[in-house]
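[step 3/7] fold_predict: job queued, chain A
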Amino acid sequence: MAADAPPSTVVGSLDELKRVKDVEREWDERVRDAHARADTALQHLREDADARIALARTAARQSREERVRAAQQEGDREAAQILAAGATEAEQVAAGTGSAPAEQREAILRAVLGEFLTDGSA
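[step 4/7] structure written:
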């Protein structure tokens, strides 16, 4: 009879192996679940980062366009002021008035008539 029944140590060993296998399967599932959650979280973070980068690019482009527009307007204002000042001076020179012709009169006369002047006056 003793030969028909398995020894108690063998049955105990099989039960221990089954428990070890069950625990191993349980931990494998936990690791897979944790890995899947980490992958999902990482994917969400990547999508969030991509969205934020796209928003930052859009904001930077809009800011750049606004600065370019402001610089063009400032340049147009300065050009208009320069043209207005030039037109005013041109009118004054044509009329023989203004400070520029009076200051330059003596220099121009000396340059043109310098060799004909004997006493140094114009």
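[step 5/7] annotate
The chain has one domain: 8-95.
Residues 8-95 form one domain.
exit 0
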